[in-house]
Amino acid sequence: MSFDLVFFGGTGDLTWRKLMPALFQAFRHGKLPEGGRILSVARDDMPDERYREWLKERFREVEGPKRPTDEEFERFAALLHYRRMDLSQPEHYQRLKDWLAERNADTVVLYLATSPHLFTQICAQLGAAGLNGPKIRVVLEKPLGHDLASAQEINKAVRSVFAETQAFRIDHYLGKPSVQNLMALRFGNALFEPLWRRESIANIQITLAEGLGVGTRGDFYDRTGALRDMIQNHALQLLTMVAMEPPSTNDADAIRDEKLKVLRSLKPFTAESVGRDVVRGQYRAGTVDGKAVPGYLEEVKVPSDSACETFVALRTEVQNWRWAGVPFYLRTGKRLAARDAQIVVNFRPVPHPIFPGGNVANKLVIKLQPEDGLELHLLAAKGSSHGESLAPVSLDLDFDKAFAANRVGAYERLLLDAIAGRLNLFVRSDEQEQAWRWVEPILDAWEQDTTGPRPYTAGSWGPPAASALVARDGFAWAEEQ
């Protein structure tokens, strides 16, 4: 299958830090379809060879075994092309159309790796140029809007040009192997699904923690914040994967229909419940990995009086028969104690313990990063004597070791799916809008709250109020258990 893949924003950080390395890995693994061309477009004026040299220099920053050898890069570079393009000029879209028409590939993927405020303009220009035929797909990078109204505006612009089946809204967390194995765990095995309900599960925790600060992205982050950057998309998508009902098939819309039902079942926030069930924080100077780091207000391009949140923890519920009364805790933040993304399913303890120490509950830990795997925490007898107390043990599955030969990264998987036209791991417009609809009361309440975010020390696990949020129900975050 021949394909043309076009990156709008071809010299931007996302393209050279994430997308091009992911494509190279697909090329190295022999998974990239034969007969492909990769075109980057941006405002700079340079010939193909200069762009290839520029990208080669960027690739030198890739560490470890993922860095290409010179011979590997030369073979990959043969696929790479570059064209100057002013996204506001209709004639430049016509030139792009002419370039694509040179060989009439089977599939054309247009990846908008630009600022989201350009999406409506780009889609309108693509439609005017006739670059929206049935073999063309458009990939939209997050964040899609900054609130419900802006998200709806973007989706309206996309739908005016492309069919829903042509629109691939990307959330790279859905491409992580552990998330895919969450589906397999639940719907490919008979072991867990009978227990996956309120009678057996006490609570579910989703943590997306980062040790890094905002770096040089202070101006962008200050307009965004942790709620928009991580909760509205990544965390909620993970929640839907955990809580969804079994779909009738593995078809994209069957899966996305069930995810949408979860989003519609989430307990809505009010101004009162935001104050009770949501904690926002902002990091202060502290120590991470033994190094002193500045507070958020001292970061580059961050206003000294900023009220932007760098941490969010919240409690919610899925109001349906399967999950009624089970709290879901979502947490994300920057400059936390560790880089750690995981889903923890805490099961209820046995109803009548007969062993000393036997009232510790089991839990399933789905690890997303930096490791990638599953841990099942159980209790076992320490010895063989009668009345021996129990001790915790764990069964640990490392996916990187178990499936080393077949592992692909999140962006690699999603790029290959976009080329192949597989929509299963992409977000539908009604899902995305419902997620915005659910978080908007939080944003509205914060607009009226003059107290601002709670401070927390860099290198900690966030404000103490986040621990109190969970403790109120008689539970604790995973690292406190």
From TrEMBL:
Q: Which GO terms describe its molecular function?
A: glucose-6-phosphate dehydrogenase activity; NADP binding
Q: Where does this protein hold NADP(+)?
A: R43, D86, L87, K142
- The entry's active site is H234 (proton acceptor)
Name the Gene3D superfamilies for this protein: Dihydrodipicolinate Reductase, domain 2, NAD(P)-binding Rossmann-like Domain
- What catalytic activity is recorded? D-glucose 6-phosphate + NADP(+) = 6-phospho-D-glucono-1,5-lactone + NADPH + H(+)
The catalytic activity of this protein is classed by the Enzyme Commission as 1.1.1.49
Name of one Pfam family that matches: G6PD_C
Q: Which residues bind substrate?
A: H172, K176, E210, D229, K334
Segments forming domain Glucose-6-phosphate dehydrogenase NAD-binding: 6-181
Main EC class the enzyme belongs to: oxidoreductase
Q: Which NCBIfam families match?
A: PRK12853.1-3, zwf
Of which family is this protein a member?
Belongs to the glucose-6-phosphate dehydrogenase family.
* Protein's UniProt name: Glucose-6-phosphate 1-dehydrogenase
- What gene codes for this chain? zwf
